[in-house]
């Protein structure tokens, strides 16, 4: 098999075909003392971890002709692109908690974007500190309690409450802004006024720490966490008209056609006309094509940020000693199956961009098909620093894959198990569990009257053909259901659905002139008094499939009082 290179794919435009397939801190427990480095000969390397919010897996210029991201593209040319990078929960707070703790949502307990507790959690930079690293967190935290107080594990702290704001007066009433009220940052525990455009300002702080504040004799870990490109995305003035006139194309499945919804759960169609549906997204009449002009022009400021960081590394001779990681906390749907945003187990929601760069260590200009999960980041970062793995970590170190010591074809990636817990504030998406093993992805929903799904994402990357009722895949469905259930047990072996306190009805509005409700599936519509009326409750099996194929019930159940299901027949000896 030929080795793909980003350079060749850029030249040919064939990349899509190639890759189709405060109080909180005080409440934390003390980090266990880290043992001596696992590999004593490891030379500590610097790491710059750049995390975006809600950037699509294909939201970069080297994947989308017409997008202008020259600095991100340069990272890909000089490093490795990992198209099969996924998140175990596609929602800001749970995903960020998984990145920071090396644990899944069912174990770290940060299950939605409301007020999950951070009590008892240890964030991986604390282990790096113990190994002699200087660490900095700059940007969006948005995890656990709604506080911007410094968290343990970071020598430098710059953050803000909640989602933050692109501009100093965004979200502030005009009268209050006129009085001088501004959005605030928390810098090492002290409130400081936000002065300018957030992406640029966070980058200024990051550059200041790199250039002036850190100890140059120690390795460093910089966690630069941008608000961009989260809704509502606003670009800086210099990019306000960057994509004027560009008509971004939507996926084919965005159209409201019977073909697009064949085999899909009812909730998917019902969400079309909602806060997270393409017809009424964010309860506005904006088109997705128009929204994407804001989305991608906001990304351009991040691209500038990447350029500033890379220039610094080159000028200081740090390029070969620093791993640069560019990724996002979630994917983002732009109309696939009529949906927007994330939360679902569909590919555009769970897949995220991932580019890594370190000349001489990370192969240059390559596309690595090995699967990475955000669950694997923390163990990888400790591994590359030669730090022992904490016992609570659930992921695996992907450092051998990243450096090319293990080829992607030999990489034994664990099952990708996905969990999303229903969130009252946005109730249109049900609780969702999924498992990906090889080419097959099985999706199951919790607490909703609907169908489940099974896709071969290699043959059907757009997830258009639900195979869940295909007899040829019956054994696969049964096996994946069992494996998913087993792997979704928490550390105590329990299967528990967590939830946070409900404070209102949530976003339930629909366009009164928009799409109505979905019809029930045709194979659910039956006549009364069937003898197989109990069969749908019985476990799926080859025997049940054979009975139904022959027109028989697996376990005949006449209606009470009829055909032998009565007192007279039941009382006979």
Protein architecture, described:
- This is Acetylglucosamine-6-sulfatase.
- Residues 548-573 are annotated as: Disordered.
- The protein has 573 residues and is of the alpha/beta class.
- Among the domains are: 46-252 and 284-409, Alkaline Phosphatase, subunit A (3-Layer(aba) Sandwich), CATH 3.40.720.10; 532-563, no CATH class.
- The chain is built from 18 helices and 18 strands.
- It has helices at 6-12, 15-18, 23-27, 70-78, 92-101, 105-108, 125-130, 174-178, 198-213, 258-261, 266-271, 288-315, 347-350, 377-384, 399-402, 474-487, 542-549, 567-570; strands at 46-52, 80-81, 85-86, 134-139, 156-159, 184-187, 190-193, 220-225, 322-328, 333-334, 340-341, 354-357, 366-367, 372-373, 416-420, 431-437, 440-446, 453-456.
- The strands form four sheets. Strands 7-6-5-4-8-1-9-12-2-13 form a ten-stranded mixed β-sheet. Strands 15-16-17-18 form a four-stranded antiparallel β-sheet, covered by helices on one side.
- Helix 9 (198-213) runs parallel beside helix 12.
- The longest helix has 28 residues, at 288-315.
- The model is unreliable at 7-31 and 33-41 (pLDDT under 50).
């Amino acid at each position: 098999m030929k080795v793909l290179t980003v350079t060749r794919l850029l030249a040919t435009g064939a990349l899509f075909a190639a890759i189709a397939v405060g109080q909180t801190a005080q409440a934390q427990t003390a980090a266990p003392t880290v043992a001596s480095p696992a590999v004593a000969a490891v030379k500590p390397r610097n790491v710059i971890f750049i995390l975006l919010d809600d950037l699509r897996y294909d939201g970069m210029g080297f994947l989308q002709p017409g997008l202008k991201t020259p600095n991100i593209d340069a990272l890909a040319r000089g490093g490795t692109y990992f198209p099969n990078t996924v998140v175990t929960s596609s929602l800001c707070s749970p995903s960020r908690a998984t990145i920071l703790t090396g644990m899944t949502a069912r174990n770290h307990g940060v299950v939605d974007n409301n007020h999950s507790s951070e009590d008892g959690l240890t964030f991986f930079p604390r282990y790096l500190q113990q190994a002699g690293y200087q660490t900095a967190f700059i940007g969006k935290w948005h995890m656990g309690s709604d506080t911007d107080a410094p968290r343990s594990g970071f020598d430098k702290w710059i953050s803000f409450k909640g989602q933050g704001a692109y501009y100093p007066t965004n979200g502030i009433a005009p009268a209050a802004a006129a009085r001088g009220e501004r959005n605030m940052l928390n810098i090492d525990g002290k409130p400081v006024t936000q002065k300018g455009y957030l992406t640029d300002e966070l980058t200024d702080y990051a550059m200041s720490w790199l250039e002036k504040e850190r100890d140059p004799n120690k390795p460093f870990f910089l966690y630069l966490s941008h608000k961009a490109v989260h809704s509502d995305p606003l670009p800086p003035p210099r990019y306000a008209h960057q994509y004027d006139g560009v008509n971004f194309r939507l996926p084919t499945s965005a159209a409201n056609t019977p073909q697009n919804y064949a085999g899909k759960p009812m909730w998917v169609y019902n969400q079309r006309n909602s806060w997270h549906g393409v017809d009424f997204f964010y309860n506005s009449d904006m088109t997705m094509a128009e929204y994407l002009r804001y989305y991608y022009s906001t990304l351009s400021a991040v691209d500038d940020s990447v350029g500033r960081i890379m220039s610094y590394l080159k000028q200081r001779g740090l390029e070969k000693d620093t791993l640069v990681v560019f990724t996002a906390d979630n994917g983002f749907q732009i109309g696939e199956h009529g949906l927007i945003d994330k939360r679902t187990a569909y590919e555009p929601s769970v897949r995220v961009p991932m580019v890594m760069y370190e000349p001489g260590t990370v192969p240059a200009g390559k596309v690595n098909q090995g699967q990475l999960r955000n669950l694997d980041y923390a163990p990888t970062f400790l591994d590359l620093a030669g730090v022992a793995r904490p016992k609570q970590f659930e992921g695996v170190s992907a450092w051998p894959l990243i450096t090319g010591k293990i080829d992607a074809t030999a990489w034994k990636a664990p099952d990708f198990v996905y969990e999303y817990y229903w969130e009252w504030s946005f109730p249109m998406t049900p609780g969702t569990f999924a498992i990906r093993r090889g080419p097959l992805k099985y999706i199951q929903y919790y607490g909703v009257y609907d169908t489940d799904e099974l896709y071969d994402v290699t043959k059907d990357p757009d997830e258009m053909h639900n195979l869940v009722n295909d007899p040829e895949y019956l054994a696969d469905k049964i096996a994946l259901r069992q494996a998913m259930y087993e792997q979704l047990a928490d550390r105590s072996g329990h299967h528990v659905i967590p939830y946070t306190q409900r404070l209102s009805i949530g976003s339930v509005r629909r366009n009164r002139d928009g799409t109505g409700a979905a019809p029930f599936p045709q194979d659910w519509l039956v006549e009364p008094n069937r003898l197989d009326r109990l069969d749908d409750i019985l476990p799926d099996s080859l025997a049940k499939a054979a009975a139904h194929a022959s027109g028989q019930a697996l376990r005949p159940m006449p209606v009470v009082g009829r055909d032998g299901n009565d007192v007279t027949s039941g009382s006979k000896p």
